[in-house]
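ok trying this again, last paste got cut off
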Amino acid sequence: MATFLHRVGRWAFRRRRVVVLAWVVVLAAVFLGASGASEAPDDSSSMPGIESQQAFDLINERFPGAEADGAEARIVFVADPGQHITAAANRAAIGDLVAAVADGPQVADATSPFGTNAVSKDKSTAYATVTYKVASDDLTDASKTDLTKAVEHARDAGLTVEVGGSALETDAGEGLGEALGVVVAAIVLLITFGSLAAAGLPLLTAILGVCVSLAGITAVSSAFGFSSTVGELAMMLGLAVGIDYSLFVVSRYREERSKGHQPQEAAALAAGTAGSAVVFAGLTVVIALLGLSVIGVPMLTKMGIGSAGAVVVAVLIALTAVPALLGFWPNAVLARRDRKGVRPARIKLFPRIGRTRRVGTSAKEARGVRWARFVVRRPLPVLLLSVIGLGALAVPSLDLRMGMPGDEAKSTATTERRAYDDLAEGFGPGFNGPLTVVVDARKADDPKAAVSAVSAKLAATKGVVSVSPARFNEAKDTAVISAVPSTAPTSRETQDLVHTIRGGRSAVESATGAEFKVTGTTALNIDVGQKMQDALIPYLAVVVGLAFVLLMLVFRSILVPLKAALGFLLSVGAALGAIVTVFQQGHGTGFFGVDETGPIMSTMPIFLVGIVFGLAMDYQVFLVSRIREAHIHGEGPGQAVVTGFRHSAQVVAAAALIMMAVFGGFMTGGESMVKMVGFGLAGAVFFDAFVVRMAFVPAVLALLGKRAWWLPSWLDRLLPRVDVEGEALTKQVHPPRDSSDNDDRRTPMTVV
């Protein structure tokens, strides 16, 4: 592997104009394809294998013309204090609104609160329901404008009017997102490298990779069903790994130049060594993302495939475009003093990556080296402290409740949240999450009697406060019933109620011959959460198993991949615990701008495991490969750890800070779920890079000693050799000639 990539790096450096032109052609081709592509499909809410989805499909089949997941607007009216909503003036204003909305071309039905008993007991609140024939994403601007104008007219009449539901769902305020991540990344790179060119090169190549990936996803979105969400995740990951992978190659190039190698050979060596680590780190990310397909949710599978493509593009750019661009500016990426050939004796606050010191120098060692020596001297206390600390942070994850936060989690500045609060106050907390029960009475002798029996059973169930009249289809063999719980949609009591209703239906079905299923947004969220929870262990097994094999190939060891997996579980557990602490238990919500606590987004643990596992293995490969490189060339276990930290600790720290900046930028958005994703990913990267890789890993390696690199002889013969450390290159590449100009830059501790 290292020899092949060495040739690739040399070729890219020599044929830099061809390489750059090729990437420009690729970029132009995908942009051309994207410009002619049809609009990206809507996000698919299909969740095969769960009861709620089966009920939705049945409603769509038996009630043609009105989708089960069609858009809905619940218009809430609140009378002024001391007045009743049933007053003549208020009734007239509400009637005018319903009549105006009902004439819309996409409207399936518009019901007045006075005809459906949708008035609170104290007559202070009422609501009208508008259902549409199409999903919310398919609503035209004309339909939304008609609804907005009707609401404004009712407000002008003196009523407080708020709109909930999906028809007029407002977008959360856009945060700084990727822009903030890029700015912070630029600052980190500038401090790390001390060169504008060196800082700008990883940013430039990462942006190139993101543009290629996004345009490519857009070009094939119609053929593969990629939604806009696929592009958003691909952009986030592509930017993060693109910067990191280029960072590793550039830093290795600077290191090789500091040893006296000529630019072309330094670029080739960087591609052969750091490039090999990039390939295998990228493979672990791809494995984690493609592993999303085992969950059985089409949306997650597509997101994994699209994001994996972005990671592959980032790897290819790091191996080809980065050496090519180094060929155009071979000296610009070096620090100013390095370009002049002058090396100061004093230590800067942020020591530059790529500089090495001679053995025996009296200058103060870098912080990473001093920390590594400390861990090697005291491995057991460091190991215990890191495990106990991460374990304590992970304890709240045992209380993890998964669901999909709704309007209750939005800011009070939105009309959806105000409508939610008004309905909860006027009709009870469960009114915002009614359960939809679809009764299939085709096999019943008397369909109407069977539906009545189901309605009676629902009404008698503890926790149900009201049941709506059954609505039959044209064939009169299927009915839809709405049951309102007494508790909030995201509460444990409501979840228990859904299980109770489903658990008692066998007796009803036996007595009536009719079958029924429970669905609706509340039940759907419960089912999705359960599906994600059930899929978590198989997903972990597949991803960790495949990555274990890959890391065993890279490091020729059994204990090192096992240690990597255990460290990853610690970091993910701590990140999940932090998420539960803030977003479920409510600690620190004011600091993070979280308006309401509730269950953790159902897909969050899966995303956290998949994405963070891949990124964590990046740090594992880059850090431990340098340690193993030193071990292969004869250094003792403790000294190998110190040497590995000397050449990679600052790079890993800078890469982690960049990752955290990219993910943390999403916390500036207005949507609670987006903040949750950004917080979780940034926290997981912090725990993995600065606790697991910087403390747990060197402590374990120091305790294991040479046993860390043990591999049974029979397995050693079976496994192919991939040579990530570039051992074969030492036999092919001649060391740079000694010269007085470069004498103070060379270290005998570093072997290519």
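PB: full thing came through this time. The CA atoms of residues 430 and 487 lie 4 Å apart.
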